[in-house]
Queue: 4 jobs
Job 1
Amino acid sequence: MIDFRNVTKIYDTGNHALNGVSLHIDDGEFVFLVGPSGSGKSTIIKLLTAELMPSSGSIQVNGYQIESIKKSQIPDLRRTVGVIFQDFRLIENKTVFDNVAFGMRIVGASAKQIKERVDYVLDLVGLENRGRRFPHELSGGEQQRVAIARSLVNNPNMIIADEPTGNLDPQRSYEIMMLLERANALGTTVMIVTHEQELVNRFTKRVIAIANGKVINDGMDGYYLNESD
Amino acid sequence: MKYLFAEGIHNMYTHGFMSFAAVCVTVACFIIIGSFSMIVYNLGLFVSDMEHQNRIHAFIDESYDTSAAKSVGSQINLVDNVLEAKFISREEAGERFIDQQGGGNAFEGVTAETFRDRFEITLEDNAKMDETVQALGAIKGVAEVKALPELAKGFLTIQRAFNIASVVIIVVLLVVSLFMISNTIKLAMYDRKEEIGIMKMLGATNRFIRFPYFVEGFLIGVISAGLAFLLEWGLYDFLAEKITQSQNLQLFNLVPFREVVIPMVFAFGATGLLVGMFGSVMSIRKFLDV
Ligand SMILES: Nc1ncnc2c1ncn2[C@@H]1O[C@H](COP(=O)(O)OP(=O)(O)OP(=O)(O)O)[C@@H](O)[C@H]1O
Ligand SMILES: [Mg+2]
């Protein structure tokens, strides 16, 4: 569950990234978050994971109150949310397998559990033969799929994807979307940040549109705002 | 757990040069620390040996016969700070002297008449020696009191000065090795700043992230201590042999390293362990605020 109440975020530089954003996403929902570049989408994600603190307003995520969260609770919060970062954030000197396995290691899974589960999710994203490679030995699209596999590995309550299909060809991105939809069908809340009108309109899902740090539309009509709108 | 240990060892390999440099400097520090400790220890033994050989001697007036001389003992025992007073007749003293000189023929002419009856006195507290010597000298029948010779006194001063200097040097070198290890870990973590950030975003606790670096610091400390110990052993035995062979330095009798191996193993081990652990803990804290 995500709940933003009148959230503003002003960066140290004085940038007003968010201006009074309120939105509510229930458990099990599938939501697109769309908006032009610089509108504040990534900022919303960083607030969700307590990477940033709101300047004002209140944020609740999976039962944690972000603005008053204790430092020691942050790891627990983050384990409930699988984030696929816009810039992947893979660990360069670890293999694909170890990158994906990392999420399980931090919760103390056994080597056997890890092996089974990691092989399974790598298979799921179509990287079954890439486990021993390092991130720099992969194409952009493959790296993105590693990031996706990593977000899936711990079966989080919620998956948040920042431009998950940005580097993929249409066929691949459709497959990834199907994958996320499958996760959603199994009960995972999914939020996808994207620019791609095509993609959004292909699914009939709730779309939250933001511009200039404000929510300007929220509905089930697959509506997508162009940057010119 | 196994994973975290493996990570720590892996870390050492990946920034091998820094680890290597840290081990070298730490080994050097530990060897110097160890050498100073050994010198302090030997000097301590040497001085206490000297003090032992040079108990105070109170010589009895030559006009006293043996039984009269013996009776002076009861008065000597009354003096403050006297722990024990042992009577040595002039005959015994002569034999002992000849023994000490190697029992050669050179002293055939020496007779018991050359020596005086005496008491060999052990003190409770060597620091109060001067007062005690005066008190002994005032006793009727005591002709002369001989205390520690100047040589031994000189050594005592040297020993004290050396002990203080050693403590200072040891502390400084401990700080240096602590700093070396801490810096290595700091650089290692700085190298991985991004990686640490990612780990935190995935929900890793600080403790989880810290552990491999802790292992790394710990390993550097322990490996350094191990190497330093072996080198110290070799170096010490080498020097000890040289000293025993040399004509001028035979006066010094170095304790064989074998006799102190066990305490040295513990001392080196504990120092390496502590320096390694504190070194890494010192640097780790700053990097975890993400
Ligand atoms: N660390 C930062 N310091 C200062 N300003 C920032 C920082 N990060 C983002 N901003 C500003 O905040 C605003 C929102 O940025 P954000 O990254 O949330 O946009 P976005 O919607 O994710 O854009 P894109 O689609 O290009 O990823 C922008 O004006 C950006 O310049
Ligand atoms: Mg963004």
Note: Residues 170-185 of chain A form the longest helix (16 residues).
Job 2
Amino acid sequence: MGVKVSMTVNGKQVSSEVEERTLLVTLIREQLRLTGTHVGCDTAQCGACTIAMNGKAVKSCSMLAMQAEGADIMTIEGVAKPDGTLHPMQAAFKENHGLQCGFCTPGMVMNAIDFAKRHPNASEQEVREALDGNLCRCTGYHNIVKSIMAGSKAMAAGK
Amino acid sequence: MHAFKYLRASSANDAAAAVAKNSEARYLAGGQSLVQAMKLRLSSPTDLIDLGAIKDLTGIKVDGSGVTIGAMTRHADVAGSADVKKAIPALAALAGMVGDRQVRNMGTLGGSLANSDPAADYPAAVLGLGATINTNKRKIAADDFFKGLFETALQPAELITSVTFPAAKRAAYVKFKNQASRFAIVGVFVADTGSGVRVAVTGAGPCAFRSKELEAALSKSFTVEAAAAVKVPDKGMNSDLHASAEYRAHLVTVMAKRAVQAALG
Ligand SMILES: Cc1cc2nc3c(=O)[nH]c(=O)nc-3n(C[C@H](O)[C@H](O)[C@H](O)COP(=O)(O)OP(=O)(O)OC[C@H]3O[C@@H](n4cnc5c(N)ncnc54)[C@H](O)[C@@H]3O)c2cc1C
Ligand code: FES
Ligand code: FES
């Protein structure tokens, strides 16, 4: 018991002592105190825990912290500019009423940013398919899809 | 989750040696099935041997014998590979249908096959194309690999290193998804290999299997009508809250029809 794990989190080098069985999301929330990453289920289905590992959206509840050794991790706390200016995808969620209670939102935004980088001109259907791994109990998804379409455009325009 | 010891293996040999030492040790690929099972305490290995740092286990190679994909290659990388899309478009498409984006960024080919979930997608492609599973010990033909519910021909500590998929003349995979989990309630992979037709079914039985009835009909005539005329027996098929055995048997024909249609382009 007690192993060392090191990674970059939101641009900062982090070294932590964890148990082998510590999940990445537990390290992020309970040790690094970055509580924007949420846990909404026990079955890897809700996506509230989505973060970017080496630029790819993954569910931090479904992997060990040890699997992120040496990785570049980005959580929702890392996407806005240091001066607080929202990331274009965050701004799009705000402008398009893409959230209600906000519980699913960090995971939605983290998945959406990764998706938009790879599919800048995605259709509405493709955006809906990209949300297969993110559940929202409030919005009915409609405004989330609108937000992601708008956020993708803004990202492509380099805003 | 119960406590365990963790080892990051630096080579396939080291990994295999570490698992061979201890009957309660397991390989860790992406963790998309195993970490889940451990969280629910359905599985409690004493040691996890992480394959994530072994470079040789990742990658896609195309040559005369088809497409060879490393066991640790993520579903998203197979789905997005220009080489796979060109050589076996149905395989790339299948990888793009597994679970959701986040699962595809972590889940691996080797993990999916070793796990042999009755509703997993990859087994249909492996069986449908007549692929070869390459391990650290031998080569296993797809027809000999799937043995039952979560059961394969792999021996204790045997490590899948890669899988070689022969290209087909035309092929397609269609699945009827479980709306919650995205797993296949029934999935059918149809391949016209050039030397016969292979039809593999997943989701319907304890593990993926070939449908002799559909193969016989489609070998005579590779048409939607030929598939439609086949009534698949429901004997031994899964029955659960998602679908009865009878309904699954019906879905096999329907998915086969759609797959033939897609393969004919
Ligand atoms: C929400 C969700 C939805 C999903 N939906 C689908 C779906 O629609 N279709 C589908 O097919 N799958 C689905 N999956 C499963 C997913 O495809 C996993 O990638 C797959 O089951 C294997 O996971 P893994 O590669 O991370 O392997 P792990 O979970 O790390 O390992 C699985 C098992 O394989 C063994 N193993 C791993 N690699 C090797 C190897 N190279 N040699 C020998 N043994 C090995 C491990 O010891 C373990 O027993 C889903 C999973 C989740 C969480
Ligand atoms: S908490 Fe990770 S998917 Fe629900
Ligand atoms: S806004 Fe409440 S769960 Fe999505």
Note: The radius of gyration of chain A is 15 Å.
Job 3
Amino acid sequence: MTVPQDKSSIDSWMLKSFEFAEEALTNNEVPVGCILVWKDKILATGRNEVNETKNATRHAEIVAIDKVLEYCEEHSEDKTKVFSEITLYVTVEPCIMCAAALRSVGVSKVVYGCKNERFGGCGSVLNIHTDTLHQLGPSFQCVDDVMADEAVQLLKTFYKGENTNAPDGKRKIKDNNC
Amino acid sequence: MTESQCTAVIKKLKPDESCMKCDSMKIEPVLHDKYTALVELVDAYVCQLTNKKRTSDLLRFLSTKYPLSEHPHVKRVKSTKSTDNTTTVQVVICEHSADLTCDVIKSTLTEFTDCIGCIGVVKIPSTAPLTRKQYEVATQYWPVNFYENKIITQLLTDSYFNYDDKEIIQQHMKEAIDMALIAKQKQMMPVGAVIVDPVTNRVIAKCYDKRSGTHPLQHATMVCVDLVAKSQGAGMWNYTTDDKFYNCEMKEDEINNDSKSGPYLCTGYHLYITQEPCVMCAMALVHSRIQRVYYGSKHIEGALGSKYKIHVQDGLNHHYQVFNGVLSEICDQLWTDYG
Ligand SMILES: [Zn+2]
Ligand SMILES: [Zn+2]
């Protein structure tokens, strides 16, 4: 693994991501938070905003990518170059969608906390980070299991209460297996 | 673009209008691989039954001693009538395994030595057949139970949609093609998308792919899902009137979250899109709980049949139906002289 920081600085960046995961929890969102670090500084932060936006794709990573795009626009930076130099710290393994989004903008390094057994795109359900997908974008490396227990604890706290935004009859969607 | 303009462009794209005829219109289901898989076989020990009066005794004994719990679809007994009208009855004892020899099995069947012949090994289907075709192949080896899924049968025999259904599907795909044509005029990727409530046929949102603009994540599907959120009074991205996107506006009582019937994400909706979605978009549709997707052209890295089948991916908590080939010739031609 060639993530350039030593263990203690990885932990301290991850600790920062937890602030946003906790903010998500306070707002009744799935508690996942992230930061995008560029040139040793936090360039963008994100947390789940699914209920707030009524858009199920509003994951922490997508929120943070949006902020980087805005930053690049404002500061006339080359977004492809910026993304390629960024490290993402996210409390939970990126889902299949976010892993693909990270590839399509060209993020090359990802550090995450716990596994995402339900939707994970970096090893749990699929290997979107390393699969052969030339048109989508470059593959990326992952460092996992950074403060994983804390991330799991937060998720457990959330799932003990239910997502109150889903109408009763729609919380359990019957699988259509064809 | 008006309806007639669209038709004119389509005519230009495809002077031979045969593909526009509903009865010749291809709509192909993209099913889980298990429905087209070859029948897998495993070896099993069988014996011939020489005294049929003891069939039920033997079966009762086998069901406790050698339950077929791994292969519940397999019938224990196979009767074969030969040309001289005599019937041979064979019984499955258990799945073959290296550490279970014929002699060991014989030693457990001592109370039946008077009614069974020698023990042999045959091939039996290892999983339950899911389609009539698999059933027909499986029974060539050994009798199995088959519970026919009517919808799967209709899908496989092209009888799921009637003429009217196909006409409606074609109309919505034409709307998606219209959006792709707007994109093309704007030097964007010619991919258009429409989300429809199939109960009322109301168009909820329509847009095209904007990834080649300022935002690399604004694939047609991502934008369309966001326009659905906008129709419910929320959303994540801003658009201008110049984009020529559309979303309906739900009334306050329609979007009330306390209502059990109010819209929730894309639950119950159908997406029409001119090109097969990528893996990001396919997963966005899982999160959004879409009910069904129709697409035109395939894409080499597409995630709804080509590279992945995200809509029926094992391990995911929501699955959706996918059909491809809808007006695919026209969707393909949208790409000629692009870029
Ligand atoms: Zn995600
Ligand atoms: Zn896409």
Note: The pocket of zinc ion (ligand 1) is lined by residues A 59, 61, 94-95, 97-98 (CB under 6 Å).
Job 4
Amino acid sequence: MIRITDISHQIAGQEILHRVNLDIPQGGLTALVGPNGAGKSTLLSLVARLLKAQSGRIEINGKDLSQYSHADLAKLLAILPQVLTSTHRISVKDLVGFGRYPYSRGRLGPQDRKVVAQVLQSFELQQIQDRFLDTLSGGQRQRAYTAMAWAQDTEYLLLDEPLNNLDIAASRSLMARLKTLAKQEQRTIVIVLHDINYAAGYADHIVALKAGQIVAAGSPQEIVSEGFLRDVFETDAKVVLAGERPLVVV
Amino acid sequence: MLRRRFFWLVLALIVVSVLFLTLGAKGSWSFTLWFRGQKLASLVLIGGAISTATILFQTITHNRILTPSIMGFDALYVLILTVMIFMMGASGYAQFLKVELFLINLVLLTLASVALFTVLLKDQSSDLMRMVLTGIILGSLFRSLVQMIQRLIDPSEFSVLQSVSFARFNKVDADLLLVSAVLVGLTWAVIWKMRHRLDILALGVVLPVSLGADPNRGQLLVLVLISILVSVSTALVGPVAFLGLLVSSLTYRLIPSWHHGHILPAAILIGGITLVGGQMVLERILHLETPLAVVVECLGGLVFLFLILRKGSA
Ligand SMILES: Nc1ncnc2c1ncn2[C@@H]1O[C@H](COP(=O)(O)OP(=O)(O)OP(=O)(O)O)[C@@H](O)[C@H]1O
Ligand SMILES: [Mg+2]
């Protein structure tokens, strides 16, 4: 479990996160939603130790984050950042291979090669596996980076807007894959989403962040409503029910 | 494809080396070969050292324009030397062996550059142009300090200094060659061992952390390695501003690979070819008095301008 206790964070004198308390339950898909600038990426960066915690604490599996070595943490938790540099002259296959670095330290063994081949297949990247990243479309590139994080084979996976640039088919297949994996392998996936319908359709939990504070948390059915959209996003959108599932009419 | 290109690079280095050793040789062969062989070795060593230092720096700063010399590493070396001569005086300076002095300088440069550049590289979000400007300002700051101190010291000391403040490829100090070769060899061995880690560190700021390669520790180690390489090349031939950039741009172009296991050997080969070939053409074929440094700096400077302009318009 990821336990976030009393995390506050300031950047340049501005409070970005204010006393955030959050338990991310073991296993399953947790969607992190909220308006632009709410602090979602900052929160993920703190959990992935990209930023140093200024106050409060973060525990993973009962152990304080600062007590993990870099090498050990990389086998437990992977993060895919929101903004990815696109000029990397790496082939897709090599990039996915880099996902095995925590285990292989750069020398891919038979097991690593097997995982890479599997991941390339399940992300439908075989056709373009030898292309360089800087020759790919935005969506193909996003898929390649997600495949890399996937190949890292960690218990916890933090994905910051992985649906960026993906078409509807790729978005749905990625979300379905994440959901299955989370269930089958007891993995814990935290995913930042902007489309509430994807959050409601695939996530087990939704956590909403606004102006650096948690304003709502629960199952999609409990959370997504017209009032929720008005409070959190300050927009008047209609919410209808499609069976059990709430659906935002955009 | 990579294999073929490596083959051509190795062949090119062999050809220019043989030409360098034999072309226009007069008198005793054994003497010529021994004399020229030393020069050849030092040119390959220096070309390789500057090229690897450049590639390493570009890897940890995630860009392909900045180089250690543009950021003022060599200027800092000359500054440290100047301050030392100023404080000890020419007589004090003469008490030390060349090799001792060189090693003292090397340690000081390593400490100074690690202190300076860890601060400078801390804010990785800072944009490239700001880094370029900082580097240029630092470089000229160091150089002006050198000039200011030079005014304060007497002429005998000044001549000692002058020999280290200008690039020169035609005269290389034989005393330092051996210790330099050992140092560069050791550095290359360390770099080769960490080549996979370099592939990861080059991915940016976030992905290395996610993959478990601590960028701070990696950066520190790489800065130390760069300092050693720069010390060696500056002690042997003086500061060279744009050679590294020339070589690294050629390398990326010829070797389209992310793997430092490919890039670094290619850069060493290309660095050697540039210096040996350049010196050979200038001295033996064109019989020109123009120092190689001037030509290389000109070409490298043009590459720098081209990269900056392209970056600016992109
Ligand atoms: N390096 C920084 N310097 C200054 N302010 C920053 C920095 N990084 C983030 N911020 C500010 O912190 C706040 C939260 O940023 P964050 O990136 O966490 O938002 P977010 O919820 O991920 O937004 P988005 O949905 O747009 O990705 C924003 O107001 C942003 O301007
Ligand atoms: Mg964000």
Note: Chain B has a mean pLDDT of 82.
